[in-house]
Amino acid sequence: MLDDLKYIHEKDTYDALGTVGNQWKQLQQKYDLPAIDKEFSNIIHAGMGGSALWALVGMSWPGFNLPFEVSRGYDIPAYVSEKTLFIAASVSGNTEETLSSLAQAEEKGAYIVVIASGGKLAEIAKAKNYPFIELPKVVPPRYGMFNGLKGLTILGEQLGILSEKNAVKELEDAAKFVEDSISGWRADVPTAQNQAKQLAQELAGKSVVIYGGPLMAPAAHKWKIGFNENAKTVAWEYAFPEFNHNEFTGWTSHPVDKPYGIVYLLSSFDNDRIKKRFDLSERLLSGRWPAPIHVEVQGETKLEQLLWAVTLGDFVSVYLSLLNGLSPIDMGDDDIIEKFKKELG
Questions:
Q1: Residue 221: which domain range?
Q2: Which helix (H) or strand (E) is 200 found in, with range?
Q3: Domain end call among 173, 191, 212
Q4: At what angle do helices 217-229 and 302-323 cross, to 10 degrees?
């Protein structure tokens, strides 16, 4: 089925595969920011869904040399003050939780930066002269994660709050690596040579569970989002070492029938104790859970590995959607999230 290009074109009406395949170009996007001459004590990134995701990736790479928290909800942490850099992020610009958080941050006197492609957030930024990173419009927004990561990296480098040096250049240089990696996952590459198609076939008909170590945790979260929104498949993710303190025991008994597909995202940058936890968990749970699928993440740097893992997950979830007989992108009345938003009001 996945080698039938006619079938793919019929189902992938809005060309999700093409959009995913061009994500590497977002890493070369340019953004202009005014000079910001201010020191901060902490950073809050307020965003939901994909607009939170690039900040979670940013905590793995490039990292921040100030306390950094991703706030996903209506309310902000009590410690927000005039010493806080508050980043209000929403691709659409209309996310109600983020708008609520922004209003609270303004009351606390936090320094506001807005990242959005339009909507109410853009209107507020322009009206109040907040530094504004205007993202290109990508439909649906979950395919624009690399735009957000690039904007956040530019902001962080300008303010000198990143752990990595020359992060913007490293991000731009990594675009070629991602482009080359994608060439092996495209629709015209047969399943026999296509890792993304093979993984989709292995996971078809199952709820998907994705595990990563500290570095790969945000990539695992992106896989979960992709399975949910692209393939309309129940999925969840969790991270080692926390896994061994609770969820590990959950696999030992019920439910007896376990219709799950388990994916290990394994990085060469995982420390030896994390690697041992992956191996030992698999051995002790042998016969009690489905054998994990090992995905050895490729790339010579932490950044390359994160970008590779995120992009592979997008391809896998799109192919799984096609195996499910569904369009990876729902538009208009077919989008249950949009239906929910309308009824929520």
A1: 5-14+177-323
A2: helix 195-203
A3: 173
A4: 20
Say if residue 185 is in the same domain as residue 138.
no
Residue 186 burial (CB count, 10 A)? 15
Helices (H) and strands (E) in the chain, counts: 13, 9
Residues 6+ apart with CB under 8 A from 313: 210, 219, 222, 223, 226
Task: Identify which of 256, 67, 243 has the alpha carbon closest to the alpha carbon of residue 163.
Answer: 67
Q: At residue 334, does pLDDT exceed 80?
A: no
- Distance, in Å, from the CA atom of 157 to the CA atom of 49, rounded to the nearest integer, reads 24
Which of 52-56, 142-146, 225-229, 341-345 shows the lowest mean pLDDT across its residues? 341-345
Q: Is the pLDDT confidence value at 337 over 90?
A: no
Within-domain flag for 343? no
Cα angle 278, 280, 284; round to 5: 120
Q: Judge if 34 and 132 occupy the same domain.
A: yes
88 bridge partner residues: 46, 114
Instruction: Look at the chain and report how many structural domains it folds into.
Output: 2
Q: Which tokens belong to 128?
A: 């109040």
pTM: 0.94
CATH of the domain at 316: 3.40.50.10490
Task: Flag whether pLDDT at 141 surpasses 90.
Answer: no
Query: 152 and 185, same structural domain?
Result: no
CA angle, 38 as apex, 35 and 43 as ends, to 5°? 105
Tokens matching residue 91: 């691709």
